[in-house]
Design goal:
homodimer, 256 residues, seven-stranded mixed sheet, binds adenosine-5'-triphosphate, binds magnesium ion
Chain lengths: 256, 256
């Protein structure tokens, strides 16, 4: 059956999109079939895979509002085993439009029910907020992956995110689980990175992946070439880290 | 009279909070009286000024819902000339709560009307989204300052932000103006920073401040000490850049 992982953190710029794209690519490279669902109105995941604006006629917005089935929104990415449901700016309106709709929290879950069996994994790239878009992702997901930038301010919102995951588990999705916390943009020249990483491991223990994603300029260059860093420069430290992360994630999935 | 500047960008992690805190501190150092209004449920601006959770009994949430006047929510920061309306996690609910309320877009504007004359400047730190919290800030503001990280993905959402500012100008706030775009986290070792900066200057011309904020680890350390970097380490490159930015902003304000 299909496992759905929401990549979420309301703190901005922590590596949600980068983790979704590169983890999905690394998982696809191990012969899993993976779907990326771009649920961020910025459409950064779609851009990072080279999708022009003209190729986004049918998006996650249409899926969420029930105008198309999931299958009608899925596109090929040119990367074997990796498919995409893109996003564009019409998703900005969804937060307000969904509030007065019936089943406003479960629309994505219902739409994904149509994907069961077509993919091994669905990774949802969430926007930096806890509004109805991210809530839909948490209700639809089997587990949540939380990218955490190794910076002081990034620690602040984590406890609220964990509370939100628990509230969704109690209210909508009893099977929702924290798959893990991935430390991102770790800079070994900077004491602050070490301190934050140590704090997070102390507090969350085994929930924190052993793999740490280093700050690596090749990672931030890859989106401008429309490719995951695993394809843009597969030998760089960022690409290698995401390959390690994928094997850790897949091992956890097997053990669950 | 009081000038209100919204510091906004729906892209996450681009330096909205860091710019709000440090620009406000630099402006206060020139004998202006400045109020920071934390409108982000993460409460990063409040934390960056050292405010513990227990000191946030009255927040921007209460102001927005009309439960208290602005004056009742203002706190001292210990920094001469700088005051704060804090935020905490009860603001997460505001986006959904506001949708069905009357005057949902103008509540902050009405609340700030009570501040006119008490401060020279009000800087609003916005969350990384374009939902009703940020819309309230844009409706209440005289002008918008847009921090823009020198990264490829950060370019993507700018055109939509500019469209949103124009829509708010036409629909709610005819005086709303783009005060300027400030390039942040510029890394001189990294070509990508140069390319992004060149693209932005080409497209936005004089709207881009001459001052560029460099990536500087002291800037990201300061919040863990509860101080603006201007106080934590006033000689570092980040602090100096914000001092230059303040003089550029104040010059533009005089020329407007
Ligand atoms: N390991 C890394 N090394 C260097 N740069 C990185 C790394 N990971 C991400 N980045 C860059 O940092 C910026 C933020 O990352 P990204 O956009 O993936 O975060 P996000 O959490 O998805 O942001 P948002 O909250 O806006 O959705 C991007 O410009 C990205 O290219
Ligand atoms: N010039 C700089 N040099 C180094 N680090 C910086 C700089 N500016 C900001 N940072 C760090 O980068 C991270 C993101 O900055 P900040 O939190 O101010 O962005 P933001 O746009 O307010 O984020 P959000 O979208 O979550 O509100 C923080 O950890 C901050 O300390
Ligand atoms: Mg993203
Ligand atoms: Mg912020």
């Amino acid at each position: 059956s299909t496992r759905v992982i929401a990549v979420a953190n309301q703190k901005g710029g922590v590596g949600k999109t980068t983790t979704t794209i590169n983890l999905a690519t690394a998982m696809a490279a191990t012969k899993k079939s993976v779907l990326i669902l771009d649920l961020d109105p910025q459409g950064n995941a779609s851009t990072s895979l080279g999708l022009e604006a003209a190729q986004r006629a049918v998006t996650s917005y249409h899926v969420l509002l029930g105008e198309v089935s999931l299958g009608e929104a899925v596109q090929e990415t040119g990367i074997p085993g990796l498919a995409l449901v893109p996003a564009d700016s019409n998703l900005y309106g969804a937060d307000i439009e969904l509030v007065d709709m019936a089943r406003r929290e479960t629309r994505l879950k219902e739409a994904l029910a149509g994907a069961v069996g077509a993919f091994d994994y669905v990774l949802i790239d969430c926007p930096p907020s806890l509004t109805l878009l991210t809530l839909n992702a948490l209700v639809a997901a089997d587990s949540v992956m939380v990218p955490l930038q190794c910076e002081f301010l990034a620690l602040e919102g984590i406890s609220h995110l964990i509370k939100t995951i628990e509230a969704v588990r109690k209210g909508f999705n009893p099977g929702l689980d924290l798959q893990g916390i991935v430390l991102t943009m770790f800079d070994k020249r900077n004491n602050l990175s070490d301190q934050v990483a140590a704090d997070v491991r102390e507090f969350f223990g085994d929930k924190v992946y052993k793999t740490v994603i280093p700050r690596n300029v090749r990672v931030s260059e890859a989106p401008s070439h429309g490719k995951p860093v695993l394809i843009y420069d597969h030998k760089c430290s960022g690409a290698e880290a995401y390959i390690h992360l994928a094997s850790e994630v897949l091992k956890r999935e097997r053990d669950m």
